[in-house]
Model the fold of this input.
Amino acid sequence: MSEENVIAGRMRRLAATLIDAALVPALTIVLVMVSGIVEDAQDYADNSWMAWVLVLAITSYLILNGYGLWRSGQTIGKRLLGIAIVPCTSKTSSLIRGQFWALICIRALFFPLLFLVVTPLAVIPLIDQILIFTRKRRCLHGLAAGTMVIRVH
Done:
């Protein structure tokens, strides 16, 4: 981290997460309803509907946040609260453009897979978010991606 980068505050990060945590599932629900994936009781006969919901969750994340993450390292929540994701190795507040695919693979897949695969172990998403309260303020997925969140306004 350089002198130019100021780590984003915990409450600001938490609020951005809550905004994103409301928007992405809301769009996913709309896409599930529009697509009719789980419209009838027979749609639940096998587990293939879960794979389709996962695909729609990732699609929702990319629709809402893909361009913003590529362009400025910001989800909608982060943009509203003036924070952005940058590589930990950054000397300035240069944003994440060069690492877009790694960012998408880690972030866009992390949350839906986490909730789909380990729903009984719901403590893992909680641990991921609680890590913002450590000294370095980096979540589990940020550690995996080699990123940190800074103030941009």
User: Anything to note?
Assistant: Helices lie at 10-35, 48-72, 76-81, 100-117, 123-130, 140-145.
